[in-house]
Amino acid sequence: MTMVDRTIYWKKHFVALFITIILFVIGLLIGLKVSDTRLITLQEFNEQQKADFESLQLQYAYLTTSNGSCVVFKKALDQSVDNLETARIKLESYMQASTNPENFISQKRSYMLAEIRYWLLTRETRKACGKDSVDVLFFYQDDENCQKCSTQGYILTSLKDTFKDKLLIFSLDASSEEPMVSIIKNVYNVTSTPSVVVDGQVIDHFTEEGELHNAICTKFNHAPDVCNE
Predict the structure, then answer these.
(1) Entry pTM
(2) Which of 170, 182, 207 is nearest to 88 (CA)?
(3) Nearest CA to 87 among 53, 43, 137, 148?
């Protein structure tokens, strides 16, 4: 009787182990499928933003050689920058949730290069349309290396909601090995995170919303109404 009980007990453990392995494999396959789907989505968006940037370049060329509309162009530029920032945030969350974040590294580099291209185009646009917006470079790292970077990002998002198209935000991972990121960091002497560069003014520490709001307002030639509220 004891031998029978032990046999049944062993069989139960074997069945439980087998089921656990099956569930683990299924979970792993689902995780890989989700990761692949997310990567494909990011790749598709990356191709779309490249096409959008080429379109903006053509619009800018037309603007500077003909009688194009600055209002229309800047609205398109602002929308493209917003879309890119939304995609960047998704990319960061996908990388944190992924079991193989290396798959996303090339996409992250593409996004940062796109951010820099848009930032440079913004500076060029001022030559043709004048300055009626402020650009902010946001240097961040992941939460493990910069505990206040996420909070700084939320504050910038809130300020974007306040200033609308009068504020353009470009986010760069300060830990990136991308040469262009290193060049920009050296130009502005960015050595810590979070850091923000408000239209050339470097703030190399975490900044509360009120202080950052005031710093942005000082950079306008003609301050918007929200600066007087």
Answers:
(1) 0.77
(2) 170
(3) 43
In one-letter notation, the amino acid at residue 153 is G
CB 39 within 8 A of CB 103: yes
Q: Put the strands of the sheet holding 201-203 in their side by side order.
A: 167-173, 134-140, 195-198, 201-203
**How many Å separate Cα 202 from the centre of its chain?**
20
pLDDT at 9: 52
- From the number of C-beta atoms within 10 Å of its C-beta (0-12, 13-18, 19+), residue 36 rates as exposed
Please count the residues of the chain: 229
